[in-house]
Known about the structure:
Blueprint: E1 2-8, E2 10-11, H1 13-31, E3 35-39, H2 51-60, E4 64-66, H3 78-83, E5 87-88, E6 102-106, E7 112-119, H4 130-144, E8 147-153, H5 157-167, E9 173-177, E10 187-188, E11 194-196, E12 201-204, H6 213-222, E13 235-245, E14 251-260
Parallel strand pairs: 1-3, 2-12, 3-4, 4-5, 7-8, 8-9, 9-11
Antiparallel strand pairs: 1-13, 6-7, 10-11, 12-13, 13-14
Amino acid sequence: MRLNFLCIGDIVGRPGRRIVAEKLKPLVKELNIDCVIANAENAAGGSGLTPQIYNKLLRYGVNLVTLGDHTFRKRDIIQTLEVTDNLARPANLSEYAAGRGVGVYKTSKGPTVGVVSLIGRMFMKPADCPYSAVDRILPSLQQQADIVFVDFHAEATSEKVAMGYYLDGRVSCVFGTHTHVVTADERILPKGTAYITDIGMTGGHDSVLGRGAESVLKSFRTQMPFPFEIATGDVKINAILVTVDSNSKKAERIERIRLNAEYKESTSYDSDDGKPEYFNNNF
């Protein structure tokens, strides 16, 4: 049986959520998608995730949600992390951190999908070894899930490429997130794992990684903190379409997807973003 997966790159703020709300369900129908995986660690005001936004993403058609270095930026997500089985924070955070490093979803066709969230260590905050973490997780996850995807949320391209080769033949797909810039290296690795270094972001592309260019430039030039407002121009979805044979677990296709918004984004504040962070220098 062949299954189609849509993996959506970092959803940034209200513009990213709006285009997902507008485009996702028609795209799922058009491409016969069996499972949607989305990185949502920037979904709430550009940094973090709230329970309200998590629930909205599920209503829009997302089945599995992954997070990254801003997992705990909104404290009210902690309880949700503890009680849901389709929301994954990086598995190589402290073993005492709230939440799970895997998410599981049963498709309508029968096979169950598991996603592992990992975070990189190069140019990132301290974290445990992602290789040891995924080695520890895979044996038990493969008892629960027929097909496994891995979201490697990392800065360095070399670290992501290395993880792709490390997991080649052991999982169906390794995709990178975090840099917000889509890469053109999608391919099927020698042992059958689909791979891309970074899916890119879902949000305003007339920007610096989803934030207003003017304020980011001020911060870079002056080394002073400035509010990094969410950009609202040129809103796009960046995603990948992956086809997997559920019997062999091998990927048969990986393709980049890019869609434009058809609305004019409002700059009004959305209370679901959580409390605004006026001097947030972190992407």
